[in-house]
Specification:
The complex is a heterotrimer. Chain A is an all-alpha fold. Chain A has five helices and no strands. In chain B, strands 2-1-5-3-4 form a five-stranded mixed sheet. Chain B has a two-stranded antiparallel ribbon with strand order 6-7. In chain B, α3 runs parallel beside α7 and α7 crosses α10. The chains are: A mainly alpha, B alpha+beta, C mainly alpha.
């Protein structure tokens, strides 16, 4: 995998931030189109997962926020210490964490979507 | 003319509501330590008489002359021109010669060495890393057209007043190190060049006599380069010369992000008039 | 880049004392704090919503844990954090590109920095006001009961 330049990583950071803003706003507003407590009922939540556009929205939130958030964490950790071992470790850890969170969340989405409960 | 200038200054001071604390004496709490000799840190409290115009540097030199001649202080011009007397005064990096005792509150003034610089003794710190970060930015004009060996071709670059204004304020940097001391990224990141070096990178980048824009961008486009600036603005808030390093850094970053693609120009050489 | 000496660096203490240098330094500190807080919430949220896949009982157990006054308070904090982080983030995208900071010129007494102007500073205040408003609205929904 070719290493990305820091400027390319930061452009991704800014773009994912802006894009996440829109999709998260929609996600939050979905909790307000029906009374809040009703919106958390099991049946209503599962119904959301059977709605394909909403599923795509959730997946995009997952990916965008994971990239933006873990890149932010990488930046904070890189500023704390600067040995080669630490920098390589931080980079690998944040990429792995990003992928793990996206994988785990996607699994939830797929299972909930295919749910027959 | 003089009256106009005085009026202008009075208007500005009124607007900024600068409070003056008039005292006849003040206690200087001076940080004392000699790391190389293995001395531990302690503070010495020294009372010095002050007048309305006494600066912190005046007070320190009085303390050194009459109370304790072993205080280590670095200073030179006494007029905010050389940048030697940078130190932390009441927790904020300032030039001692440019800070009047009357503009500080309280009966005690705490004086410490600049943070983020390796400490030598008392109020004196080591600037070699600071200067090496500056050197990393290649702080000189790089242009193959500037061939001064061939006197027959000797000419000048065309630079208008507008071109000059794009970088002039950044050239006023006196390398006092106050910005480097205030920066939160420098506080933890040993590879970060600091606001002074990065603003000088911009100073040469935007100077239209320089043709090495791409190379300068590559120097700062690093994991610990310009991207680790987060516009905390502390550098600009402590700069005594109005250099505003934060502005230079964000403008350079604008070029890297593609916000200001069209502004970097390279000057032409003036045509030498033909001799008759 | 040459590695410089860590001697006499302020370290994390510099991050934890945001009141010394004005609004921009405080907003940098808050942006970091809210970013880390939101990341922690994000990971927790992914985990708590995964209880959906284990059936209605698991989901109800999770709701019992989170739909409490403490859970609502945390959610309120998250609402405030996301509103601040987003609004300030947008401000930062502009300022990091050099927009809204003014133009370089010829400094004169009192040598105030052009970049620390009210145009971009007001972005911080707007972000704080938006966060407070969002928290108030969130409190009315979470604690008001519908």
């Amino acid at each position: 995998m070719a290493m990305l330049r820091e400027s390319q990583i930061m452009k991704i950071h800014y773009i994912t931030g802006i894009a996440a803003l829109f999709v998260v706003a929609v996600h939050i507003l979905m909790r307000l189109i029906i009374p809040f407590s009703l919106s958390l009922e099991y049946e209503n939540v599962i119904a959301n997962y059977h709605n394909i556009p909403y599923v795509l929205l959730l997946e995009s939130i997952l990916v965008l926020i994971a990239i933006h958030g873990f890149n932010g964490l990488r930046i904070i950790l890189l500023e704390l210490r600067q040995s080669k071992a630490w920098e390589d470790g931080v980079t690998i850890l944040t990429i792995v964490a990003m992928m793990a969170v996206v994988a785990y969340g996607t699994l939830t989405i797929i299972l909930a979507n295919g749910s027959r409960f | 003319m003089t009256e106009q200038i005085i009026e202008k200054i009075e208007k500005i001071e009124k607007k900024h509501k600068k409070k003056e604390t008039i005292r006849s004496s003040v206690v200087l709490k001076v940080y004392r330590a000699n790391r190389r000799a293995g001395e531990s840190v302690h503070y010495d409290s020294i009372e010095v008489p002050v007048q309305r115009w006494t600066t912190v540097l005046d007070a320190l030199l009085y303390a050194k002359a009459y109370k304790d001649k072993s205080i280590g202080i670095r200073y030179s011009c006494r007029m905010a021109s050389c940048g030697s007397c940078g130190m932390k005064i009441n927790g904020i990096p300032r030039l001692a010669c440019y800070t009047k005792v009357s503009e500080l509150e309280g009966s005690t003034i705490t004086v410490e060495p600049l943070a983020n610089f390796p400490h030598i003794r008392d109020l004196v710190t080591d600037f070699s890393q600071f200067f090496s970060h500056h050197r990393d930015m290649r702080p000189y004009i790089q242009n193959d057209e500037a061939d001064i060996k061939d006197r027959a071709k000797l000419s000048e670059f065309m630079q208008s007043p507008e071109d000059l204004d794009k970088f002039l304020q950044f050239s006023y940097c006196i390398k006092c190190g106050l910005c480097y001391s205030a920066c939160p990224t420098v506080a933890t990141d040993t590879k970060f060049p600091g606001p002074q070096a990065l603003s000088q990178a911009y100073r040469y980048f935007i100077d239209n006599r320089d043709a090495a824009g791409k190379e300068r961008e590559n120097i700062v486009d690093d994991r610990h380069g310009i991207w680790r600036c987060h516009f905390a603005g502390s550098c600009s808030s402590v700069c005594p010369k109005g250099v505003d390093p934060a502005l230079g850094i964000q403008l350079l970053r604008g070029h890297l992000l593609g916000f200001s693609k069209n502004e970097k120009k390279v000057a032409d050489l003036r045509e030498r008039p033909k001799r008759d | 880049m040459e590695v410089a000496d860590r001697n006499n660096r302020e370290g994390m203490k510099a991050w934890l004392n945001p009141g010394r240098y004005g609004w921009e330094r405080a907003s940098y500190w808050l942006q970091r704090l809210t970013g880390v807080g939101l990341l922690a919430y994000f990971v927790g949220h992914i985990y708590e919503t995964s209880s959906l896949t284990q059936g209605p009982d698991a989901w109800a157990a999770m709701l019992e844990l989170t739909q409490t006054p403490m859970g609502h308070l945390i959610l309120l904090l998250v609402i405030g954090m996301s509103a601040y982080h987003s609004a300030n983030g947008i401000r930062l995208i502009f300022t990091h590109g050099g927009k809204g900071l003014g133009k370089p010129g010829r400094p004169d007494y009192p040598y105030d920095a052009v970049s620390l102007n009210y145009r971009q500073k007001s972005g911080i205040w707007i972000a704080l006001i938006l966060a407070a408003t969002a928290m108030l609205y969130g409190a009315s929904v979470l604690f008001g009961g519908e």
